[in-house]
Amino acid sequence: MSTGFQPAANPSIVQTQAAREPGRAHVLVVGNEKGGSGKSTTALHIAIALLKQGARVATLDLDTRQGTLGRYLENRAAYAKRKGLELAMPIHVAVPLSALADRAAADADETARFEAALATARAAADFVVVDTPGSDTHLSRLAHTQADTLLTPLNDSFIDLDLLARVDPDTLRILRPSVYAEAVWRQRQLRAVQGRRPVDWVVMRNRLSSLAARNKRDMAVVIETLAKRIGFRVAAGLSERVIYKELFLNGLTLLDLKCGSASLTLSHVAARQEVRDLVAALNLPLPAAPGPKDAPATEASTQVPPPEE
Ligand SMILES: Nc1ncnc2c1ncn2[C@@H]1O[C@H](COP(=O)(O)OP(=O)(O)OP(=O)(O)O)[C@@H](O)[C@H]1O
Ligand SMILES: [Mg+2]
Fold this sequence. Notes:
Number of helices: 10
Bound molecules: adenosine-5'-triphosphate, magnesium ion
CATH architecture: 3-Layer(aba) Sandwich
Number of domains: 1
C-alpha cells in the first residue's frame, strides 16, 4: 500500500449536484484502471444521450491504442451514410500517446497535447466526455484532475472491486482502499490545491446479472459501505445484455433505436431506460433551454440489430 493516502474523513466530500462553472464546459471523465469495465460503451451512450437532450457534446479519446470510441463513431458515421440518416454526432478529438522515448519529455508532450485538445473540446461543447484507458497512464491522470464528474463503471465482480478496495472474504469488511481509490484521492488533492471545485465521483455497476445471485447482493453491500468510506455516489447500473455488443458495428446506441419497431424487444426498452436513469443520476448541469438536435427521422428509420437470444 502506498503511503499518504487518507480515506475521506467526511462523506460530505460527495457532491450531489455537479453545478456548471459559468462559461465552462462540464468535463465528464469515464475512468477505471480495470480494463473492460464498460468505459467506452458507457461514454458513447452518455454522449449520445446528452446530444439528444440538446447539449453540444465533444468526446475525447485518451485510449487511442485501442481507439474503441473513435472506431465506434466511425462505424456510426458510416452507418448514417449507408442508410442516408442524420445521426447525432459528437465532436471527436483523440490524443495519441507520445512517441518520445524519454519519459519526462513524453509526459510534457502529452500534457501539451492533452491541454490543447481539451481546450478545443471545451470551446465547442457544453460537455466533454472523456474516455480513458483501463490502466494508469499519464494521459489518464491528467484527465482525472480535470474531471468535474468522474464516472467509474464497475463490473459486478469482486475481481473488479479489488482495484477500489481490499475486502475481508469472511466478513466482507473493507480492509483498506486500493490503487484506483488512491489515484482518485491524489487527483482530488491536486484539484483542491489548485482551488478547483471538488469532483463528483459516481460509481456505477455494469453488466449486472438478472439473477438474484449472492455475488450481486454482496457487491451491493460492500459498494454502499465503500461509498461512505471513500466518498463516491452509487448510480443504478446497466444490466448484462448482448445488445451492447451488437450495436458497436453500426455505431448505434440504445437511444437510437426506434420505439415501436418489431425487433425492439422489452429487454431493449428496459436497457434504454437504464441508460436514461444513469444519465439522470449523474445530475449533469444541462445548458438552459435545450432543443432537440437530432431529426425524428433518425429514430424512426434506424434499424434495430437482431434481438438478444
Ligand atoms: N452492460 C453490458 N452488457 C453486456 N456487455 C457489455 C456491457 N457493457 C460493456 N459490455 C461489453 O464489454 C466489453 C468491454 O466494454 P468496453 O470496451 O466498453 O470496456 P472498457 O472499459 O472501455 O475496456 P478497456 O478498459 O479495454 O478500454 C465489450 O465487449 C462490450 O461490448
Ligand atoms: Mg475502452
